[in-house]
Specification:
348 residues; 24% helix; homodimer; six-stranded parallel beta sheet; seven-stranded mixed beta sheet; Rossmann fold; 11 helices; Quinone Oxidoreductase, Chain A, domain 1; alpha/beta
Amino acid sequence: MLPTKAYAAYSAGDLLKPFEFSRRTLGENDVAVEILYCGVCHSDIHQARGEWGNSTFPMVPGHEIVGRVLARGARAGRHAIGDLVGIGCFVDSCRSCSSCQEGEEQYCQGHISFTYNGTEQDQRTPTQGGYSSHIVVDERYALKVSPTLNLSAVAPLLCAGITTYSPLRHWKVGKGDRLGILGLGGLGHMGVKFGVAFGAEVTVISTSPKKKADAERLGAHDFLVLNDDEAVSKAAEKFDYIIDTVSAEHDMNRVLNLIRRDGTLIVVGVPPKAPEIHPFSLIPRRRRIAGSMIGGLRETQEMLDYCAEHDIVSDVEVISIADINTAYERMIRGDVRYRFVIDAKTLK
Amino acid sequence: MLPTKAYAAYSAGDLLKPFEFSRRTLGENDVAVEILYCGVCHSDIHQARGEWGNSTFPMVPGHEIVGRVLARGARAGRHAIGDLVGIGCFVDSCRSCSSCQEGEEQYCQGHISFTYNGTEQDQRTPTQGGYSSHIVVDERYALKVSPTLNLSAVAPLLCAGITTYSPLRHWKVGKGDRLGILGLGGLGHMGVKFGVAFGAEVTVISTSPKKKADAERLGAHDFLVLNDDEAVSKAAEKFDYIIDTVSAEHDMNRVLNLIRRDGTLIVVGVPPKAPEIHPFSLIPRRRRIAGSMIGGLRETQEMLDYCAEHDIVSDVEVISIADINTAYERMIRGDVRYRFVIDAKTLK
């Protein structure tokens, strides 16, 4: 059993507070990991505050984890002691359904063990996430991280990064494609970096005109203010793909009208209220809406390798765990460029 | 000018009544057509009653037309006098946009001239539809109809037929695919016939258990009652594709859960209120929703030829024009199997 210092939400209304517990005994296929950094994802707030209605407490959030292997089980040979590893949104899955067999574990049709606010494969033992000093996981679910990158800025790749990388790869977005990235936050800024790296013509679509300079700095080729009626009307049917990263309520029909015939709106953000989609936004141009969720193990490793090769990381602000509640408030105000990352040393 | 006897809606609240007018002078590329049959589509009701908010009156509905060429213009050589032709949902389009150039005129990004409740390419002259004795159209927009089929039962192919044929072809639905047809009406019954003909395993999904026998008679392999919780739960993630033909309000999230990972819900029906689509119905299985609208000229001709070759027509009840208002009431009650078709002789 691995003594672990963490921060947890004790109930839906509460601030996060210190929490000490023991991680599971090292199983024969497990690695014990000393956490170095953990990114702070908007879904941490939704779940810590009980906003998705499926929260169990105490809850240690965090699923953008970078750490170092401290120990490994008798049959664990994938990572050496001292290796850097990344752990994303899930720490296990059924391994037998068609999605698991095809390396799309994120869509596991059996039981997926989310990194926190989930349960292990026994479907009883709660999982606890990365706002903590240590974690123990099956070595298959720990990915290799290159030591050449800034590790604090690697952490958000495990959720914000793969959530935008995966659909861009799945739909083969690249040269010759006009890509819109709706919302310039934790997900959006990674979408811009990947879209540009893959050769697409990238437009940031945002309600904040003041994000234009940042969009350009990130490499975007164009900027569209979503509540500028004239600009929106000029951009009608312009995009082959738009990735919608916005988790606040917004008019999706307005966004759909920016998409060309046979183009696709890829939804990765989850607004609190289900959006109304008018059939007339889809039918007269044979438009599509698709969801996409993080990525599988193979694809997440591919992304981490791609990022190491192309020097891509997240833009981060490193914080002490003591600042987590303030960080949540700042995220809700959109006051972060573009990801808070907890320095896990501050937990000790 | 071609004297034409018709039935029209004079205002949004009114019953349809006799209406006499003159069709346009025969242009050099036009054919003058004596109408034999015209199908009655649910969208006729929506528009005649002003339910889509874009109606102009007087309005002669009808866009499922089968007729015979009476005369042709000086440069019209595509059809001979006496030939059978079909006219569907549009009678002209801009011919220069990318959709028109690619033979997808139904998605014309310029001006499409819908067969009624639209305007000609001058964007002023109102178009009038097939509840009439005659029509004059550019010969390109009249399709060839085989004399081997029952002509009254061919008429609905021009809208109900192509609306289901086109998405099945576009998404290459066939052998090895599990196809759900949601709603067994004018569109749905054609979806079943085409799905079966293309080799898919077809399930009719309906809220009316009493439609089961009909579904089987039409060739469906299975039947699912949408409000049977147990059956729906057993069918979760079963379908590769579902074609949603329902134009009444319904819970699309319940339908989406029947679709497998990476499967597609194809929307061809237009409910009065925009459905709420929860992102969690899409994201955790990377599901897709797509719209689809009728078909282009080339594809509609391909469908008419396919139907002649495979002996596929609509199931119809032929009515006199005097019964049109009663027919509307019966359609709203779902009391038609599966399409009313006006015998245009009754207009004379």
